[in-house]
Design a protein that fits this description.
Number of helices: 0
Strand content: over 45%
Radius of gyration: 13 Å
Order of helices and strands: EEEEEEEEEEE
Shape: globular
Helix content: under 10%
Largest sheet: 7 strands, mixed
Distance between the termini: 40 Å
Structural class: mainly beta
């Protein structure tokens, strides 16, 4: 199992950008996909993006497609979420999670980070 730690969140104005990082430790030599999810106040946890072990397959929620880009550097055991053209509705706690399938469903993930707050506001 891998342990995950997110970083890179913060306060940004609408239209701005942030890059989130998800650093993995533990059993990083075993293949794992990584997903990003977010949780906004009063809403259910929402799928954002996922990337396969070698980075060849990525999938995005419709709400972020064209604005967010997920990538990974396995040499650094880190997955990134580049977020551009941020809007107030992107405000949430962002979590990364690991599993073997790269599912869009949070229930399939068994390793989660602690989350990082992203606030988009003027």
């Amino acid at each position: 199992q891998v342990q995950l730690v997110e970083s890179g969140g913060g306060l940004v104005q609408p239209g701005g950008s942030l890059r989130l990082s998800c650093a993995a430790s533990g059993r990083t030599d075993s293949p794992y996909a990584v997903g990003w999810f977010r949780l906004a106040p009063g809403k259910e946890r929402e799928f954002v993006a996922t990337i396969s072990w070698r980075g060849g397959t990525a999938s995005y929620a419709e709400s972020v497609k064209g604005r967010f880009t997920i990538s990974r550097d396995n040499a650094r055991n880190t997955v990134y979420l580049q977020m551009n053209s941020l809007q107030p509705e992107d405000t949430a706690v962002y979590y990364c999670a690991a599993d073997t399938t790269g599912s869009r469903t949070s229930h399939s993930y068994d390793s989660w980070g602690q989350g990082t707050q992203v606030t988009v506001s003027s």
